[in-house]
Every structure is written in structure tokens, then in C-alpha cells.
Amino acid sequence: MNKRLQEIIQYKTGGRQKYFAELMGWTPQYVFKLLKGENFGLQPVLKICEALPELNARWLLTGKGEMITEDWRSGLRREAMKKAQTIMDFERLVPVMTPDELRKFERLLMYQREVDFSPDTLISMNERANEREREINAKFAAAAAKSDELCRQQTVKK
């Protein structure tokens, strides 16, 4: 079990035993004893399972299965997709953002915070994005019409 504890410490703190001890409310000496196989009874196992709900208790006790539960992985995937969708929704607005809005959006992305523009700001950005899209579509339609006209003229000349 001490090998699995080492894997947990690696997963949670990058292998730093002192930080893991702080996370668990233990002393570094206690973690060292557990890693040597001393005092590894039910209480430390319960404490680990309580503090780290993503861990598979069966894996911790027996070594069978995966360290992280599938439910936890699924939850992380759902959360990642939710955040990715939010970013993709804002990607459409980036071309019409003001410098202040861009600066705020950049800070939100760089520091991994939730996007928290006010409802009025979001409405304004969406209106600007819709207007930009209408302008682009109008230019595209004009270019397509011009292209069709030029193609017809060349056909007539032959």
C-alpha cells in the first residue's frame, strides 16, 4: 500500500511529501512512516479517501483497477467540454471586442477564471458580432455576384 501512497503523492503534489502532509493535515514524519509501511491502518486510508474523493478506494486497498475513478474522469471531461464551449462561444466575439474587453478576456484566459462579462456587455458584443457577420456576408454576396457576372461575360464573348 505504501507504493500506492507514493503514487497518490506524485499525482496530487508532484511527489512533494511535505505538501501532501499539509494537504492531509499530517506531519511530514507521519507521511514518511506511512511510506515505510508503518502505521498504515484503517484511519489513514479513510482520511485519504475522504480528502481525495477522486481516488478509487478499491485501488488504494487492493491495487486493482485505476487510481482515479471513472466518474471523476467523466466529470472532468464534462467540465473541460463546458469550458471549451464557453471559449469557443467567445472566440466569435474577439474580432469585435474593444481593447478593454480584449484585455479583460485575455486576463480571464491567462488566469483560468470564468468569463464574467456583464449581461449588457455580452449583448453589445453579440450585436457587434452579428453586424460584422452581416457585413461579411454582404461583401461575400457582392463578390459572388461580380464573379458570376464576369463568368457570363467571358462565355458570351466566345
Describe this structure in words.
This protein has 158 residues and is mainly α. It is 75% helix and 0% strand. It is built from eight helices and no strands. The protein has helices at residues 2-13, 17-24, 28-36, 42-51, 57-62, 70-91, 99-110, 119-157. Helix 2 crosses helix 3 (28-36). The model has no long low-confidence stretch (mean pLDDT 89).
Describe the secondary-structure layout.
Blueprint lengths: L1 H12 L3 H8 L3 H9 L5 H10 L5 H6 L7 H22 L7 H12 L8 H39 L1
Topology as H/E string?
Answer: HHHHHHHH
Radius of gyration: 28 Å
Strand content: under 5%
Based on Cα principal axes, name the global outline.
elongated
Provide the residue-averaged pLDDT: 89
By DSSP (H or I, 4+ residues per run), the number of helices equals 8
- The N- to C-terminal Cα distance equals 86 Å
Low-confidence sequence ranges: none
Q: What does the largest sheet look like? A: none
What is the subunit organization of this protein?
single chain
Structural category is mainly alpha
* Helix content bin: over 70%
Would you report the number of β strands?
0
Task: Summarize this entry quickly.
The protein has 158 residues and is mostly helical.
List descriptors.
single chain, 158 residues, mainly alpha, 8 helices, 0% strand, elongated
